[in-house]
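Q: Here's a chain of 256 amino acids. Please give me its 3D structure as tokens.
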Amino acid sequence: MRLISLNLWGGRAYGELESFLEREKDGTDIFCFQEVLDYTQGEPDLDSSEAKRMHHPSSFKEVADLYPRLVRILDGFDGSLSEPYSSGMERLATFSKKGTKASTRIMQAHPPFQVDVHGKPYTVSSIMQHTEIELANDLYSVFNIHGLWQGSTKHDTPERIEQSKQIVKALEGAGGLRILCGDLNLLPDAESIMIIENGMRNLIREYGITSTRSRLYTKELRYADYVFVSENLKVRGFEVLDEEVSDHLPLALDFS
């Protein structure tokens, strides 16, 4: 099986993203996306909209109907869209290939709280999509997450420590072979990462990955995205794809 995890950056590099998904969809079984938008189900408040415009390069525009577009592109998949995890209306989306027996539910990793973005109030929280997939005689538990964003820092905070504890609790309660993927907004040496590594393989560390950010990301810290797998999951391959489809790079896991 093949899984791709990617923070879509609100679709700000949509043309390249669409081409990438068209190329990859036939050979992929699961897509786990972060920062998905669907403003038909609710728009950000004025402060949050202004904060996003100030934070992102003005030459890149978000795609307000990103999820419906993903559904059209990934027509051979069943999609599941989460509730928003920020006042900017960012959501998670998991797509599993049609014909796969899969069910998705939402779990909370940290309740909402307010941060400051260029002087504007912005509410963030942390949720996970937990998708159970039955294939042959095996059960897979796939967790898709966008970890807490707290400004430019990628270091530990009390909220991130608590988030990691809740992630571990969810992983320990899951059945089958486990995968955790997504944008955690953390550096590899953070205690918040080491908490999750207790009982899980960190493929970013194991494969010596030095960056998960594309050339569209201009800041210094190049880590954000991770894939963790349980010890009993067989990894056939793992790579960070050099594709400029977001300010993040896609993570591709082949497993059984």
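Q: Can you summarize the key feature?
A: Residues 2-255 form a domain with the Deoxyribonuclease I; Chain A fold (CATH 3.60.10.10).
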